[in-house]
């Protein structure tokens, strides 16, 4: 929730925006009527306001989007591995919002509307040499990931993305994306994003920040379950089918001779 706002401090910051009420779409917020208030900070985004839902009713909302690793380390090349680190990142955001923007927030009852989990995998050879391998994996993915396309960085193909309305899977060159060169120069990121509160609840069995902090090990479990279902079980089968197809072609070619 929003506990208090220092409007003078907030209005003094250049990376904030306030949209004024339109018709009945408004929210009373600590002495002001607004439609939407946005803070676009370097490594997080806060959005507070009111919007009309599909039934015509006005809903109020408060959304905080953060990259915990970027807040702690300056970029999200590394991951956080403990609830203590997640708590540290959240506390840093809360403190900055209060000190710089004059917004005091309480996230103890926050719900998880979406969540990204990932793993970095060091490759033995340069990323570009695995293009055909990644393409084979992409084609073997379940059809439920209905949209599939190249993942691009600076207009160059650096992997792939496959998704639907609730789930997104990415294989991509993480070093190029964050423009950092490591000693290895070969870093694959396998990344899942669960895009709706319903999907978060389905995958994790809960949808609140408090439960995530209490069950932090579930992140590893959910990542492994998805990788196993989408890749580890499907790619070997696709490979066997490809081998059979080539064997059949070879036999037919030998008959023609």
Provide an overview of this structure.
The protein has 257 residues and is of the alpha+beta class. It contains 9 helices and 13 strands. The protein has helices at residues 7-11, 68-73, 83-101, 131-140, 174-178, 197-204, 209-214, 218-232, 234-256; strands spanning 2-5, 16-19, 27-29, 32-34, 36-40, 44-52, 58-66, 103-105, 115-122, 147-153, 156-163, 167-173, 187-194. The strands form 4 sheets. It has a 5-stranded antiparallel β-sheet with strand order 9-13-12-11-10. It has a 4-stranded antiparallel β-sheet with strand order 2-5-6-7. The chain has a two-stranded antiparallel sheet with strand order 1-8. Strand 10 and strand 11 form a beta hairpin. The chain is elongated. The model has no long low-confidence stretch (mean pLDDT 89).
Secondary-structure content class: alpha+beta
Helical proportion?
A: 25-40%
Strand content: 25-35%
By DSSP, the count of extended strands is: 13
pLDDT averaged residue by residue: 89
Question: What Rg is obtained from the alpha carbons, in whole angstroms?
Answer: 23 Å
- Give the CA-CA distance, first to last residue: 77 Å
Poorly predicted ranges: none
- The number of helical segments is 9
The backbone outline, from C-alpha atoms, is elongated
Strand ordering within the main sheet: 9-13-12-11-10
SSE order: EHEEEEEEHHEEHEEEHEHHHH
The main pleated sheet reads as: 5 strands, antiparallel
């Amino acid at each position: 929730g929003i506990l208090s706002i220092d409007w003078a401090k907030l209005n003094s910051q250049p990376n904030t925006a306030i949209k004024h009420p339109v018709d009945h779409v408004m929210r009373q917020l600590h002495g002001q009527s607004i439609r939407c208030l946005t803070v676009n900070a370097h490594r997080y985004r806060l959005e507070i306001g009111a919007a009309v839902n599909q039934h015509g009713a006005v809903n109020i909302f408060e959304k905080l989007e953060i990259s915990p690793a970027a807040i702690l380390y300056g970029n999200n090349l590394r991951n956080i591995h403990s609830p203590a680190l997640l708590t540290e990142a959240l506390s840093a955001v809360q403190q900055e919002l209060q000190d710089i923007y004059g917004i005091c927030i309480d996230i103890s009852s926050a719900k998880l509307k979406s969540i990204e989990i990932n793993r970095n995998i060091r490759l033995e050879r340069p990323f570009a040499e695995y293009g055909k391998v990644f393409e084979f994996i992409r084609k073997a993915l379940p059809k439920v990931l209905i949209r599939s396309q190249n993942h691009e960085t600076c207009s160059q193909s650096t992997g792939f993305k496959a998704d639907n309305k609730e789930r997104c899977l990415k294989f991509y060159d993480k070093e190029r994306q964050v423009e950092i060169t490591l000693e290895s120069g070969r870093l694959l990121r396998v990344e899942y994003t669960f895009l709706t509160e319903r999907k978060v609840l389905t995958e994790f069995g809960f949808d609140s920040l408090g439960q995530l902090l209490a069950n932090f090990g579930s992140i590893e479990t959910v990542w492994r379950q998805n990788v196993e279902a989408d890749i580890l079980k499907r790619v070997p089968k696709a490979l066997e089918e490809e081998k059979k197809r080539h064997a059949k072609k070879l036999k037919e070619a030998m008959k023609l001779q």
